[in-house]
């Protein structure tokens, strides 16, 4: 009878992933990049464990959410995750009425307006 292994959960989002968990994920994914290319990772190639659902977008720090991915592909996925997080934050801020101040001196949110001839006057 084989011993069943409990799934690993990180106590915090910053918790280091143990070597035994890295090995289990590597074996589960058969040493192939899980970004979609399904390429076999060669010996000596740089690879990382990636969270399928990014932590910044609500993913959990657990073994089931980890996958093997080449380091170059991981950088691309991380930048996409950050873009998604920024978009969600902008939409949420707009929804509750918080908007960043405009960079323009005479935008509609200021009490000043600029005429076509260049004069600035109060609205």
Q: Biggest sheet: strands side by side, in what order?
A: 1-2
Helical region count? 2
- Whole-number count of domains: 1
Helix content: 25-40%
Distance between the termini: 81 Å
The sequence of SSEs as H and E is: HEEHEE
Proportion of strand residues: 5-15%
- Morphology call: elongated
Structure class: alpha+beta
Major sheet size, sense and barrel closure = 2 strands, antiparallel
Radius of gyration: 24 Å
Mean pLDDT: 90
Low-pLDDT segments, ≥5 res: none
Number of DSSP strands?
4
Characterize the structure shown.
The protein has one domain. It is built from 2 helices and 4 strands. A hairpin with a 5-residue loop joins strand 3 and strand 4. The protein is elongated, with a radius of gyration of 24 Å. It starts with 18 loop residues before the first helix and ends with a strand.
Main attributes of the structure:
alpha+beta; two-stranded antiparallel sheet; 123 residues; 4 strands; two-stranded antiparallel ribbon
